Amino acid sequence: MTFDKATNVYFSGVYHDEQQVVHLHINDPEKFNAVDIEEYGAPEQFFCSSEVYELHINKNGQKELRIHAENCMHCKTCDIKSPEQGVTWVVPNGGNGPDFQNM
Protein backbone atom coordinates (compact mmCIF):
# COMPACT_ATOMS: atom_id res chain seq x y z
CA MET A 1 0.00 0.00 0.00
CA THR A 2 1.36 3.42 -0.92
CA PHE A 3 0.26 6.98 -0.31
CA ASP A 4 0.88 10.19 -2.21
CA LYS A 5 2.99 13.03 -0.79
CA ALA A 6 0.04 15.13 0.41
CA THR A 7 -1.39 12.17 2.33
CA ASN A 8 1.97 11.40 3.96
CA VAL A 9 2.44 15.02 5.07
CA TYR A 10 -1.12 14.99 6.47
CA PHE A 11 -0.49 11.76 8.40
CA SER A 12 2.69 13.24 9.89
CA GLY A 13 0.47 15.72 11.74
CA VAL A 14 2.68 18.73 11.03
CA TYR A 15 0.78 22.00 10.94
CA HIS A 16 2.15 25.18 9.34
CA ASP A 17 0.57 28.59 9.70
CA GLU A 18 0.19 30.24 6.28
CA GLN A 19 1.75 33.46 7.61
CA GLN A 20 4.72 31.64 9.14
CA VAL A 21 8.22 32.83 8.23
CA VAL A 22 10.11 30.33 6.07
CA HIS A 23 12.39 28.29 8.32
CA LEU A 24 14.69 26.91 5.59
CA HIS A 25 17.44 29.28 4.47
CA ILE A 26 19.94 29.22 1.62
CA ASN A 27 23.17 30.37 3.26
CA ASP A 28 25.08 31.84 0.31
CA PRO A 29 22.96 31.98 -2.88
CA GLU A 30 25.92 32.36 -5.26
CA LYS A 31 27.85 29.47 -3.73
CA PHE A 32 24.65 27.43 -3.52
CA ASN A 33 23.98 27.89 -7.24
CA ALA A 34 27.56 27.00 -8.16
CA VAL A 35 27.95 23.98 -5.88
CA ASP A 36 24.53 22.52 -5.08
CA ILE A 37 22.74 23.23 -8.35
CA GLU A 38 25.45 23.21 -11.03
CA GLU A 39 27.91 20.70 -9.58
CA TYR A 40 25.55 18.28 -7.78
CA GLY A 41 22.22 18.88 -9.57
CA ALA A 42 20.31 20.07 -6.48
CA PRO A 43 20.34 16.82 -4.48
CA GLU A 44 17.87 18.30 -1.98
CA GLN A 45 15.06 17.56 -4.42
CA PHE A 46 15.92 13.84 -4.22
CA PHE A 47 16.71 13.25 -0.55
CA CYS A 48 13.79 15.26 0.85
CA SER A 49 10.97 12.80 1.43
CA SER A 50 8.24 15.47 1.48
CA GLU A 51 9.31 17.24 -1.73
CA VAL A 52 10.12 20.56 -0.07
CA TYR A 53 12.71 21.38 -2.74
CA GLU A 54 11.95 21.76 -6.44
CA LEU A 55 14.48 22.56 -9.13
CA HIS A 56 12.88 25.05 -11.51
CA ILE A 57 14.36 25.87 -14.92
CA ASN A 58 12.95 28.95 -16.64
CA LYS A 59 12.66 29.59 -20.40
CA ASN A 60 16.19 31.03 -20.51
CA GLY A 61 17.68 27.89 -18.94
CA GLN A 62 18.40 29.53 -15.57
CA LYS A 63 18.04 27.13 -12.65
CA GLU A 64 16.73 27.98 -9.21
CA LEU A 65 15.71 25.94 -6.22
CA ARG A 66 12.18 26.62 -5.02
CA ILE A 67 11.41 25.90 -1.38
CA HIS A 68 7.95 24.63 -0.38
CA ALA A 69 8.40 24.95 3.38
CA GLU A 70 4.74 24.15 4.01
CA ASN A 71 5.52 20.49 3.19
CA CYS A 72 8.43 20.24 5.63
CA MET A 73 8.26 17.46 8.23
CA HIS A 74 11.24 18.87 10.17
CA CYS A 75 13.54 15.89 9.80
CA LYS A 76 16.56 18.24 9.26
CA THR A 77 17.95 16.03 6.49
CA CYS A 78 18.52 19.09 4.30
CA ASP A 79 20.55 20.76 7.04
CA ILE A 80 22.73 17.67 7.40
CA LYS A 81 23.10 16.41 3.80
CA SER A 82 23.18 19.62 1.74
CA PRO A 83 26.61 19.93 0.07
CA GLU A 84 28.83 22.63 1.60
CA GLN A 85 26.12 23.33 4.23
CA GLY A 86 24.03 25.15 1.60
CA VAL A 87 20.75 24.92 3.52
CA THR A 88 20.16 25.79 7.17
CA TRP A 89 17.10 24.57 9.05
CA VAL A 90 16.01 26.84 11.89
CA VAL A 91 13.27 26.32 14.43
CA PRO A 92 9.93 27.30 12.84
CA ASN A 93 7.11 29.36 14.34
CA GLY A 94 9.35 32.04 15.80
CA GLY A 95 11.23 29.60 18.02
CA ASN A 96 8.25 27.56 19.22
CA GLY A 97 9.01 24.69 16.89
CA PRO A 98 6.64 22.76 14.64
CA ASP A 99 3.07 22.08 15.67
CA PHE A 100 2.31 18.36 15.57
CA GLN A 101 -1.45 17.87 15.79
CA ASN A 102 -1.37 14.15 16.57
CA MET A 103 1.21 14.24 19.36
Descriptive notes:
The structure is a single chain. The protein has 103 residues and is of the alpha+beta class. The protein has a domain at 29-91: Alpha-Beta Plaits (2-Layer Sandwich). 27% of the residues lie in helices and 19% in strands. It has four helices and six strands. The chain has helices spanning 5-12, 29-39, 44-47, 77-81; strands spanning 14-15, 24-26, 53-57, 63-67, 87-89, 99-100. A two-stranded antiparallel sheet has the order 1-6. Strands 2-5 form a two-stranded antiparallel ribbon. A hairpin with a 5-residue loop joins strand 3 (53-57) and strand 4. It is globular.
What's the helix and strand layout?
Layout: H1 5-12, E1 14-15, E2 24-26, H2 29-39, H3 44-47, E3 53-57, E4 63-67, H4 77-81, E5 87-89, E6 99-100
Antiparallel strand pairs: 1-6, 2-5, 3-4
Radius of gyration, rounded? 14 Å
By DSSP, the count of extended strands is 6
Return the average pLDDT rounded to an integer. Answer: 81
- Shape, please? globular
In order across it, which strands form the biggest sheet? 1-6
N/C terminus separation: 24 Å
CATH class placement of the domain at 29-91: Alpha Beta
Tell me roughly what share of residues is in helical segments: 25-40%
List the uncertain runs: none
Reading the helices and strands in chain order gives HEEHHEEHEE
* Number of H- or I-type helical stretches: 4
Structural classification: alpha+beta
- Give a quick account of the main beta sheet: strands, pairing sense, barrel closure: 2 strands, antiparallel
Q: Please name the CATH architecture of the domain at 29-91.
A: 2-Layer Sandwich
Note the beta-strand portion: 15-25%
CATH domain topology of the domain at 29-91 = Alpha-Beta Plaits
